Amino acid sequence: MSNAVLSLDQVSKAYRVRQGLFGRKLPLHALQDIAFSLQKGEVVGLVGESGCGKSTLAKILLGLLNPSKGTVSMYGQPIADMPLRERASRVQPIFQDPYSSLNPRKTVAQIVGLPLNLLGIKSADRNRQVTDMLDLVGLPQRAAGSFPSQLSGGQRQRVAIARALIARPEILICDEPTSALDVSVQSQILNLLQDLRDELNLTLLLISHNLAVVRHMSDRVVVMYLGRIVEEAETQALFDSPQHPYTHALLDTVLRPVPGQGLPYLDIQGEFPNPIRPPSGCAFHPRCKLAMDRCKSERPVLSASDGHRSACFLHDVN
Ligand code: SF4
């Protein structure tokens, strides 16, 4: 049995997308041959521009989409073989905008207790567990009877975290968990996630445009470009000595994340390519300042050196 809590083996996802009103449908490869794993208690950061496939990947891990190819496994068991309820109780999401993910007509106690309802937990036990969970995420007990509209943004995200944790999942998929919050409360939520990770031995996939957040939180970082992993390394190695020119560009960029708009300013020449018509060879070559002739026709594969993987001919160790 694999030691990895979660592992992805050559996961791909393709859609057929119509070009224009009467155009024919063309394949859009949202993910291609994604392979990495999360170890118990680890925080893995996932970064890249909007359209790189991060959200598709999150949906696959949450069971909201099936991959076109490849396998996602938990402790070596394909999650496609797990009953949905078991998968949902072991992998939980935390989304960017807590307000839109909380039912405005339910109280905090009802929202947080809902997953226990679905598991058939009796009312007395449910109330006790909700009380404990509000404590754990730093919400006062009086919040139990409040509606989401009566809470601040930070408190709402605490409610979303409490709801995600109430059924004691092992893995949290955190999709931009702080980018909709005021700067002043972002660090409180990040510190809370870190404390909960330590206390509950959680495993986190942290999807974020904010490299400062990723650096602060993650043990390892995966960088994606146009549906593929282009670099993966321990956090310090990635920030101290990035190998892929795209990662270099990300790190050189002043990042000002705007909710729902991806990376608003990237100092990289050219536009993010149309995924329906991806560039030949290395998909990054039209924007790469170091591109060589072969980059236009050959695609570099991910190769590893000392656990640092990158897909670039400049670092090809094969
Ligand atoms: Fe740039 Fe070539 Fe490396 Fe792609 S393979 S990142 S185009 S140098």
Determine the mean pLDDT. Answer: 90
Largest sheet, if any?
8 strands, mixed
In helices, the fraction of residues equals: 25-40%
Assign an overall shape. globular
Radius of gyration: 20 Å
Question: What report would you give on this structure?
Answer:
With 318 residues, the protein is α/β, with parallel strands linked by helices. It contains 10 helices and 12 strands. Strands 6-7-8-3-9-10-12-11 form an 8-stranded mixed beta sheet, with helices on both faces. Strands 2-1-4-5 form a 4-stranded antiparallel beta sheet, with helices on one face. Helix 4 runs parallel beside helix 6 and helix 5 packs across helix 6 (153-165). The longest helix has 18 residues, at 183-200. It starts with 5 loop residues before the first strand and ends in an 8-residue tail after the last strand. The model has no long low-confidence stretch (mean pLDDT 90). Iron/sulfur cluster is lined by residues 244-245, 282, 284-285, 288, 290-292, 295, 300, 312-314. Iron/sulfur cluster (SF4) binds next to loops.
Brief summary of the model shown:
Helices cover 30% and strands 23% of the residues. The chain has 10 helices and 12 strands.
